[in-house]
Design goal:
The chain is an alpha+beta fold. The protein contains 9 helices and 17 strands. It has 3 domains: about 100 residues, Archaeosine Trna-guanine Transglycosylase, Chain: A, domain 4, CATH 2.30.130; about 100 residues, Pseudouridine synthase; about 90 residues, Alpha-Beta Plaits, CATH 3.30.70.3190. Strands 2, 3, 4, 5, 6, 7, 8, 9, 10 and 11 form a 10-stranded mixed β-sheet that branches. Strands 1-14-12-15-16-17-13 form a 7-stranded mixed β-sheet. The radius of gyration is 23 Å and the shape is globular.
């Protein structure tokens, strides 16, 4: 995305803040995430609770529910990272599903049926799902046949977040006039992250043991990712150190604090704020078009909608009342 560069030679104080990749383990646990390869059996909530107890954290939740029988990519969000859970829930998901047919379907007809189930579809959660049942529409980007035998069909589904694969099994059965059930489900990817980025709960437990019992934090630091890795594709503006400090306290963003801002954004657009060290400061909502902001020298240009950085990271640089 093209940027308006508003300050061509800004500076940042190395005494405050840090590049996300250089954060300590403590800092990562205060605002980071872990990618778990969820096993079959526990609920997503149970898995998050186990990880929370294992790590000794007060705040840790999961980003994207998987039913107990399902496996695969499950982000666990720690500390302030939990604030952006609703944002990452919108990421596109990819699944490998095994469907059980009462009667073997004709392959050509099956492929035609799968093709007809792509695009925008109605997707009503089944009563056994982990969320409230309500009518919804979802976009299916791809529904691909991978393998089949007498009764089982293996398929890959790439879909909008919140799609219920059990519902797709039921609807496919109605279209083919034979009962179809979802036998297995594995989430291959969530947004930019796939199974290659994930660890098992056993691997997490081993890393925690090395940290707590041996004082070796390298293994755990390697799997607790900074919050910024979840936000790499999010439109952002960059601000000076003084603006970071003000935004951390919930103050509005002023034009002199901006280093750069994307072109052609409309009034009301929400975008991420990054420091000059690429730290996620939070999110703001524009009070005017970004092209208009680029013509100003002063004034309030955006208001914070979410703060992600702690108030102690950058010093206050405005007078306080006595």
């Amino acid at each position: 995305m093209s940027q308006h560069v508003l300050d061509a030679a800004p500076t940042t104080d190395t005494a405050f803040g840090t590049n996300p990749d250089d954060r300590t383990l403590e800092q990562r646990l205060a605002s980071g995430f872990i990618l778990i390869d969820k096993p079959a059996g526990p609920t997503s909530h149970q898995l998050a609770a186990w990880a929370r107890d294992l790590l000794g954290l007060e705040r840790l939740g999961h980003g994207g529910t998987l039913d107990p029988f399902a496996t695969g990519v499950l982000p666990l969000m720690a500390g302030r990272c939990m604030k952006i859970t609703n944002k990452i829930l919108k990421h596109t998901k990819s699944y490998i599903a095994v469907f059980r047919f009462r009667q073997r379907p004709d392959e050509a007809v099956l492929r035609e049926t799968m093709a007809s189930m792509t695009g925008r579809i109605y997707n009503v959660p089944p009563e056994v799902s982990a969320v409230k049942v309500q009518v919804r529409t979802r976009t299916i980007h791809a529904f691909e046949l991978l393998d089949m035998d007498e009764q089982d069909v293996v398929a890959r589904i790439t879909c909008e977040a919140g799609t219920y694969i059990r519902t797709m099994a039921r609807d496919m059965g109605l279209m083919l006039n034979t009962p179809v059930t979802l036998k297995e489900l594995r989430r291959e990817s969530s947004g930019m992250f796939d199974l290659n980025h994930c660890i098992t709960m056993d691997q997490l437990a081993d890393a925690v043991w090395l940290w707590k019992e041996c004082g070796q934090e390298e293994a755990l630091s390697a799997v607790v990712h900074p919050i910024e890795k979840l936000l790499v594709d999010v439109p952002r503006c960059q601000v000076k150190d003084s603006a970071v400090a003000a935004l951390a306290y919930g103050a509005p963003l002023l034009r002199p604090g901006l280093v750069s801002i994307p072109q052609n954004l409309k009034k009301g657009t929400e975008l991420m704020v990054a420091s000059m060290k690429d730290e996620a400061v939070g999110f703001v909502r524009l009070k005017m078009d970004s092209n208009e902001i680029a013509t100003l020298d002063a004034g309030e240009v955006a208001r914070p909608s979410m703060v992600l950085i702690d108030t102690e990271v950058y010093p206050r640089r405005w007078p306080t009342s006595s």
